[in-house]
Design a protein that fits this description.
The longest helix is centred in the middle third of the chain and has 16 residues. The protein contains 10 helices and 8 strands. With 275 residues, it is an alpha+beta fold. It starts with 15 loop residues before the first helix and ends in a 22-residue tail after the last helix. Helix 1 packs across helix 2, helix 1 crosses helix 3 and helix 5 runs antiparallel to helix 10. The radius of gyration is 22 Å and the shape is elongated. It folds into 2 domains: 68 residues, Orthogonal Bundle (Arc Repressor Mutant, subunit A); 184 residues, GAF domain (Beta-Lactamase, 2-Layer Sandwich).
């Protein structure tokens, strides 16, 4: 049986435009006609008629094996929409809710080359502020966000990036060995979250989670930051649930439809001999 997240057609008859959108979404998620019919709940004749229209209008194409693929019209529309996306604006309400819940500073960062750039920061109601700012570039290996993203990469890619960027020591806690860092990433893959225990700034503890874009690639990370003297290691770990839920919500808002949260989103090949 085909499982689908698509809304099934309700008993009340939907309009033609609604049916067209339902079939279009199903055709973008399912490759075969029978799967589209099962996912939409519409009659075969209706699905066939609407699919034919979508193919004619180039919103859907059919490959030589009869599989449905996104057509040039939908790809052009998607490209124009993506050009207008402001990631920080999409994430802002989710970040605001997280800060209101955990009363700590929250950052969202984007990978840029061999660094993390903060694209969003929201402070809590605490009488102190973190030594960070939007636009600040920080090393991948010293931050929770960097670890959360790198944990989704193959070890060979991670090693190449670290050797190219160098593993500068920012604090006494900074990991400067490639092998030690790769072992750290194994732990991140098992837990689904990454930690920064004063490795970027002394006395600052962070927990971070990956954020997926619409293609499923992890290009962003979300982190909670606090003072080590205010929250114990166990208290920081206890924030993981709210963090993962928020990262999943942002990923969904960006168009991601894959598994989340936690290590289930990490490719099995990267989990090592942990099963």
């Amino acid at each position: 049986m085909v499982e689908s997240t698509l809304p099934q057609v309700s008993p009340s008859s939907p309009s033609t435009s609604e049916k067209t959108l339902i079939v279009l979404e199903a055709a973008l998620e399912h490759a075969r006609f029978s799967e589209v019919v099962a996912a939409t709940g519409l009659p075969k004749a209706t699905v066939h008629r609407l699919i034919s229209t979508l193919v004619e209008r180039r919103f859907v194409t059919i490959d030589p094996d009869g599989n449905y693929l996104p057509g040039p019209s939908i790809l052009a529309l998607a490209g124009r929409a993506l050009e207008r996306i402001d990631i920080s604006s999409i994430a802002q309400p989710f970040v605001d809710d997280l800060v209101d819940t955990i009363h700590c500073t929250v950052h969202m960062g984007a990978i840029s080359g061999d660094s993390v750039i903060y694209i969003l920061r929201k402070d809590s109601d605490k009488p102190y502020q973190m030594p960070s700012r939007v636009g600040l570039s920080v090393p991948l290996h010293t931050t929770g966000i960097g670890k959360a993203v790198l944990a989704t990469y193959e070890d060979e890619t991670v090693e190449r990036m670290l050797k190219r960027a160098g593993m500068v020591r920012l604090t006494d806690a900074t990991i400067t060995s490639v092998e030690d860092f790769k072992r750290e990433l194994e732990d991140v893959r098992r837990r689904g979250t990454a930690r920064d225990r004063g490795e970027n700034v002394p006395g600052i503890a962070c927990i971070a989670a990956p954020v997926h874009d619409h293609t499923g690639v992890v290009r962003y990370g979300l982190s909670i930051s606090t003072l080590s003297i205010e929250h114990s290691d166990e208290q920081v770990e206890a924030m993981a649930g709210d963090l993962l839920a928020t990262a999943a919500a942002i990923s969904k808002a960006l168009g991601y439809r894959g598994p989340y949260p936690g290590p289930s989103s990490i490719p099995h090949s990267l989990l090592g001999a942990t099963s």
